[in-house]
Please model this.
Amino acid sequence: MKTALITGITGQDGSFLAEFLLEKGYDVHGTIRRSSVDYRERIAHLEGKPHFHLHYADLGDSMSIIQVIGKVKPNEIYNLAAQSHVQVSFDSPEFTADVDATGVLRILEAVRQCSLADTCRIYQASTSELYGKVEEVPQSEKTPFHPYSPYAVAKLYGFWIVKEYREAYNMFCCSGILFNHESERRGETFVTRKITLAAARIKQGKQDKLYLGNLSSLRDWGYAKDYVECMWLILQNKTPEDFVIATGEQHSVREFCYYAFKHVGIELEFKGEDADEKGYDKATGKVLIEVSKDFYRPTDVVNLWGDPSKAKKELGWDPTKKTSFEQLVKLMVEADMKKVAAESAAEYVKTNLAEYLEKGIVK
Ligand code: NAP
Ligand code: F7E
Model:
């Protein structure tokens, strides 16, 4: 039985990867952080399974990393932990650098210090944000990097230190340069999830309007569940190499809104330009989407489009056989429609609890 350690197991990708590796028969270990609230929603269904284990560790704390790696002695490490929000990285640049840059070094050094350099394979969660202010379209493994946020600059260090350890110490460590991947488990402040939640809330009368930033920004959006398979494939490859993982299709934030609202039965029409652009409900003329400059970034990455040819050729991973853009939007909207309906039902019961208790409907 192989043993895997996933940092960032409570995140979107960590939760899908844990499920994937458990199904493959791995003994799965994950790192968690202490928090005053319960944040383990995405992995709650895995807790208690015999081959699922959790350990406290923080990428800002070398001792905790050495301790967990020394104890688990993993065959594979998936370093997914990060401060992953680009906009937040402008507000917390030093924390982002510590976790997303130095944190990677801490993992690599811990593996060496635990004498696991020859046996442990390491996957580093790299990102299309490295291309930033893009120098060519679409972007492949050969495209020059031009990071355009504190997050991207930190991740660039992570990418290079992984390459350095691979060459200096002959370690099997690789980066997956993953383009945006989303899901029903995506954090609620990333643009796709913000849109699908808002579409569901607006449809169910729980929200009036959605405020967004740059509607013209272009992304290559895939499904997170499809992408975690690639992380595993990268570590099963004969040689340690870096791969671009993407769908090879590009859509704008505006288009994402159009399809998300279409799935709840609202046809949007966009009028106006830049900060004055608005999304109208075509049937009623009501404004449902407005631009707020609060969501503009000091430097924004606006043209990401991946070329996944190398992954297709060498790993046999074919994005055309995976979840399509329209399927992705639909599955996210459907999940959020259910979530909002369940919240409304719970709210209704809570509001009427006193009356229910009095009438004996709830005991
Ligand atoms: P996510 O949902 O934000 O999850 C991030 C994970 O990192 C969480 O488990 C979080 O723990 C953990 N974490 C944050 N700071 C930490 C620290 N100091 N020590 C230990 N753990 C820490 O991100 P994701 O979307 O799953 O992405 C996974 C990885 O892929 C990240 O490295 C991200 O930068 C990278 N990436 C993501 C995408 C994408 O489109 N999703 C694309 C390219 C690359 P808490 O739950 O305790 O906060
Ligand atoms: O923004 C624009 C925003 O925050 C996408 C992370 O997983 O993928 C993610 O980073 C685009 C940007 O993702 C809003 O300006 C417009 O151009 O969903 P996002 P991201 O910045 O691409 C990469 C690959 C990662 O590595 C990261 O970890 O959408 N946008 N209006 C908005 N973005 C947000 N968040 N909120 C808005 O209201």
Summary: Residues 84, 86-87, 127-129, 179-180, 189-191, 194, 212-214, 217, 219, 253, 295, 297, 300-302 surround F7E (ligand 2) (CB under 6 Å). The chain has eleven helices and 15 strands. The longest helix spans residues 325-351. The chain has a mean pLDDT of 97.
